[in-house]
Amino acid sequence: MAGAASSGTSGEHIGRVVFIAGAAAVGGFLFGYDSAVINGAVTGIRKYFTVGAVEIGLVVAVALLGSALGAWIAGGLADRWGRTRMMQVAAVVFAVSSVGQALPLSIWDLGLWRALAGVGIGIASVIGPAYIAEVAPAAYRGRLGSFQQLAIVLGIAVSQLVNYVMAELAGGNVNNRLLWLEGWQWMLGACVVPAAVYLIFATIIPESPRFLVAAGRLSEAREVLSRVEGRGVDLDAQLAEIQRLLRSRYRPRLRDLRGPRFGLLPIVWTGMLLSFFQQFVGINVIFYYSASLWQAVGINQASSLLISFSTSLINILGTCVSMALVDRVGRRPLLMIGSVGMAVSLATAAWAFGSGVQRGGQVALPPMEGTAALVAANVFVLFYGLSWGVVVWVLLGEIFPNRIRAIALSVAATVQWLANWLITVSFPSLSEWNLAGAYLGYAFFAVLSFFFVLFGVKETKGRRLEEMG
C-alpha cells in the first residue's frame, strides 16, 4: 500500500481502475456461468433427447474445444482490433449461443451452440487477464487480476443457484415445463442477461494503454495512463518505455514464441505448464459432474444441485482469501500451499470412493465414507480457490513480456482448454472403470504441481510489466 501511495495513486484513481477491472471481468462471469451451467442441465438434456452417456459427454466437452479455438484466435485478433473490441465480440457470441442453447432442435444442434459458447469462453479467458494486467498499477495488479477468477467463481455459483431455483420451480424435475420451455432450457438461456451487461461495459471502458501505444495512438494512451496511474507518475517516461519494449508497429506472431530449448521460450513453457496443472488436478470434474456424482451416491436431484451451489460458495471464499493475500504473500507461496491442500483432499476423496459398491447400476458409499467424500471435495475446492484458481490467471496476465503477451497468453489458454477437455471427456469413463483411481490420479498431479512451482516458477509480486522478460 505504501508503494502505491508514494506513486501518487489516489483513492479516486483506484476506484476508477477497480471499476474498469470489474467491468472487464464480467467476461469471466460469463466464462464461469456458461462453463458450469451444464452441470444442472445434463440430466434434463439426456432425458429430453433420449441419448446416452457418450452423446452427453460429447455435448459437455465440445464447449471446451470451442474454448480452445476461442483462446487460440483471441490473442492475434486482440493485437489487431484491440482488447475492448474483442470483449464486445465475446459478448455477442455469448448472447447468440445462449439463445441457441435454450432452443435446440436436436442433440447435435445443442452441441454446435455449446461449441459457439465455448468460443466466447475462450476469448474471455484470454482478453480479461491481459486487459486487466495492462491497465492495473503494479502495486494492485495481483488483486485486480484476481477479479477475473472472482468473476469466474461468481458465475459458477450463480449458474448453480439458477440450476437449483429452476429445478425447484419445475417441481424437482428439470424436464418439467416452466411457461413454454423446460427447466433445463431456462438454465442455458439465462446467460443472455449478463452477456448484454458485458457488451455495455465493453463499450464504455477505455482501451488498454499498451495496445494504444502498439497501435501508435500515443495521445490516447497517455490519457488512459493518466486516468489509471494517478498523480506523481512520469507519463512521458512510461510511454517511452512501453513504446520501446513493444516495438511499436510490429505485430507479434507465433514464431516470436520460439526459443532455444524444446522449440519455445522458457516463459511460454511456464505458462503452458501452469495451465496444464490447473486443469489436471481435476477441478472441473467438480463443477461439470458433481450433481450427477452426488445423485449417484444417493442424493436427490434438487439436493445435489444445492450441494453444488454450496461448493461454489466455498470456491468464492477461497477466491476472496487469495485476493487478500496475493499481493502480500506472493504468487508462489499460495500456489504451493494450494498444491499441498489439494493433494491431501484428493487422496482422501480417493480413499472414500474406494469403499463404494455398485447397487442397481449406481455407486453407494457407506455413511462415513460418503461424508468424507463430500467434505474432501469441498476442502479441495477451498484450496484450489485460494491458490491455483486465482494465481494462475494473475500469472498468465503478467509473466509474459509486453511484446508477446497476448499471443503467448492465447497459447497458454489454449493448452488450458485442451487439458480441461481431456479431463472432462475422460472422467465419465474413468469413473465407471475406477472412481477412486481417477481421484488418486488427480492427487498425483497436485503433488507434481508443487514441485513445478518450487523449481520452475518465479515470483512476480510488485514487479511492473515492463520488467518481465
Structure description:
The strands form 2 sheets. The protein has a two-stranded antiparallel sheet. It has a two-stranded antiparallel sheet with strand order 3-4. The protein has one domain (13-205, 252-460): Growth Hormone, Chain: A. The two termini are 25 Å apart. The radius of gyration is 22 Å and the shape is globular. α6 (83-102) runs antiparallel to α10 (192-204), α7 (107-135) runs antiparallel to α8 and α8 (141-169) runs antiparallel to α9 (183-189). It has helices at residues 2-6, 11-24, 26-36, 38-49, 53-81, 83-102, 107-135, 141-169, 183-189, 192-204, 209-214, 218-229, 235-246, 266-280, 283-296, 301-325, 331-353, 367-385, 388-398, 405-456, and strands spanning 177-178, 181-182, 357-359, 362-364. It is mainly α and 469 residues long.
- Element pattern in H and E: HHHHHHHHEEHHHHHHHHHEEHHH
Question: What's the CATH first level?
Answer: Mainly Alpha
| Count of the domains | 1
The percentage helix is: over 70%
Provide mean pLDDT, rounded: 80
Distance between the termini: 25 Å
E-strand count = 4
At the fourth level of CATH, the homologous superfamily is MFS general substrate transporter like domains
Low-confidence segments: 1-9
Could you give the order of strands across the largest sheet?
1-2
- Computed over alpha carbons, the radius of gyration is 22 Å
In percent terms, what proportion of residues is strand? under 5%
Morphology call: globular
The helix-and-strand class reads: mainly alpha
Let me know the largest β-sheet. Answer: 2 strands, antiparallel
Within the CATH hierarchy, at the fold level, what is the topology?
A: Growth Hormone, Chain: A
CATH architecture: Up-down Bundle
Put simply, the count of helices is: 20
